[in-house]
Amino acid sequence: MTLRIIENAAARKLGPYRMQEVLSHAAAQTAYRMITACPRYAPTPLRALDRVAANAGLAAVWYKDESGRFGIGSFKALGGAYAVARLLQRRVAARLGHEVGVADLVRGGLRDITRTITVTCATDGNHGRSVAAGAQVFGCRCVIFLHRDVSAGREEAIRAFGAEIVRVDGNYDDSVHAATRAAEEHGWEIVSDTSWPGYVDVPRDVMQGYTVMLIEALQQLQTAGARRPTHVFVQGGVGGLAAAVCAHLWEEMGSEGPITVVVEPERADCLYQSALAGRPAPASGDLSTVMAGLSCGEVSTEAWRILCAGARFFVTIDDAPAIAAMRLLASGGAATERIVAGESATAGLAALLAIAPETMLRQQLALGPDSSILLIGSEGATDPALYRELVGDAAGA
Ligand SMILES: Cc1ncc(COP(=O)(O)O)c(C=O)c1O
Questions:
Q1: Is 1 exposed, middle or buried (0-12, 13-18, 19+ CB in 10 A)?
Q2: 112 a catalytic residue
């Protein structure tokens, strides 16, 4: 298999975290209060991959299993829906001249205002599901743009939340551009998980929602009496997830923050290419990969601001090891329990499994018997048919 790794020299020594303008613990507390007040809220489990740790000669490998998040099946449930709530709060407050709480939105007394607002975004599935769920709960209209490769199953799951669907004959980036054009034309509100110059507020809220996962993980490690991570292996699409993880742990742990390793599909390597270029750069490939959530050609500029300063390694892998990691988790070969991980959830584990046995790479990444690794299991079987096809008998099916 092809494995590419580059080191970002700028992140060799982490100084104090200074990117509070983008993501901060103060804003994370607001997100945590709002999200945990939701009646359906429950923290997701942090699973110990003891067998992986033992085989790889590492102290611990932790897997934050987002498969059950809000019944939506991925960490994205924390971001899009939260950003819809924040956006509606801002718009309603501007019309009424006073602040409104999320509970006011949920109760429905503000529907006369919220139903005049349309939120929209492009998605490969998971983000759109979260935005659609938020629109349904908080009472606004929702139009979701899907590119040609998004499966019918994922489309149905979004439609189930009452969203209208527009299909775009192109890739993910084409669908982003189509959603942007439509929003300009109709005066809709874009709730995107990616940012670009001049469009930062909503994507910052999206990423801030993700940090609730890190608050939980740190609490769970403490409860388990375990040490904080020395390394995080996290998969990258536009970089929002990786930036949330990197920023939160960096602000929490300062110069002792973990080594962040960002992992992407070989042909959707915009973060890797940006690290090579030292500035946002497009993916070098055609974005084709089974890891649908990671199939992105352009970085989120706000995420990149954090990653270019704080992420130490950028790695690309091809599809086969990611699928092998899904099968390993499904078979019970990684931990004492079987774990359901979708095709975009395992790039971090796959990269760790590829790197750990290689002496030179182990040294380069400072991996050893004292290392404690945090992985983000970012989705469950969000496309059940594809999951069955890829994992099949490994899941005992
Ligand atoms: C399951 C899953 N994991 C990881 C990612 C990557 O997140 P980001 O695009 O913020 O880098 C996505 C994005 O859609 C996803 O759906």
A1: exposed
A2: no
